[in-house]
Amino acid sequence: MQKVMSERFNDAFQYGLTEGYPPLRQAVSEICHSRGVACSAAQVYITSGSQQSLDIVARTLLDPGDTIVVERPTYLAALQVFQLAQANILSVDTDDDGMLVEQLADLLETTRVKAVYLVPTFGNPGGKTLSEARRRRLVELAKKYDFVILEDDPYGEISFTDAVRRPLYQHAVELGCEDQVVYTSTFSKILAPGMRIGWIVMPDWLAQQTVIVKQAADLHTNMLSQVITAEYLSLNRLDNQIALIREDYRKKCVALADALESRLGEHLEFSRPQGGMFLWARFRYPFDTMEWMKKTLENGVVYVPGEAFYHDKPDTRTLRLSYSTVSEAGLLTAVERLAASL
């Protein structure tokens, strides 16, 4: 911060470019390259977090009545964005390997789809990861049926294993259809959510109008946050930061999963996440997690009832648990309180 105040004062406290602070765009393009998203700094557009990325892309890309396909379940705030855009939202089921892409293929035979939105790696809420075969197939379908893939990647860096998960964007480059993939990500999950710094990698045909929408919304993302983030990245500390987050979250995830298995295994079924911030669970019998939360709140535990993540056919047996900001001891206490609430 001292360096920003002494050497970057004018940059930090003056108006900036709608597209973003140039040194930050360059740094982000290098991060993208490390993830398999080969792009230039000119293709990177800085936003005020992933939520704004989704909002301005949706407002640019979707006309009222356009069809967008999402996972069932999916990120609830994305549903809100698409509803505000007056899109026709359709859902495709998921399993442990992510979206059922062949179900999407069947849908595409009869329905004109403008875009498909998904979180392919450690998704929110399910924590599921789209398999490599399905990633390839999804991009092939995009090329065949001429729709845009909105690849939302806020959690991809938070992996608990060394498994390589190639972005959809990389598959699209190999198939010659990268202009049909919009890649979004954020520093909120790996640096500081309060900085409100996200980004979009998008094709030229979409960029110009999206920048106009961004300009109308807030002119540009907070310059102080952009300059601080750029200076931090120049210190080459991000990789160490991510490594610490991965190990911390991995331990917490294991603690939560072990406790749930021990205390609530006869009631709940779930898959152990391989990364990310969430554990998705489902009661083994008919149950209303929205109603149950009244009891758990009395015992000092809050979760997100699963039905909020469905556009249609909500599953009232489901709930999303987060382990990111709670200590291991706190997670054990929370599970005990959940058990006491049954």
UniProtKB/TrEMBL annotation:
UniProt xrefs under CDD domains: AAT_like
Keywords tagged on the record: Aminotransferase, Pyridoxal phosphate, Transferase
InterPro entries named among the record's database cross-references: Aminotransferase_I/II_large, Class-I_PLP-dep_aminotransf, PyrdxlP-dep_Trfase, PyrdxlP-dep_Trfase_major, PyrdxlP-dep_Trfase_small
GO biological process: alpha-amino acid metabolic process
Its EC number(s): 2.6.1.39
GO molecular function, a single term: pyridoxal phosphate binding
Necessary cofactors: pyridoxal 5'-phosphate
Domain Aminotransferase class I/classII large: 8-338
Gene3D superfamilies: Aspartate Aminotransferase, domain 1, Type I PLP-dependent aspartate aminotransferase-like (Major domain)
Enzyme class, spelled out: transferase
Superkingdom classification of source: Bacteria
Residues spanning the signal sequence: none
Subunit: Homodimer.
Family of the protein in this entry: Belongs to the class-I pyridoxal-phosphate-dependent aminotransferase family.
UniProt name for this protein: Transcriptional regulator
Organism: Klebsiella pneumoniae subsp. ozaenae
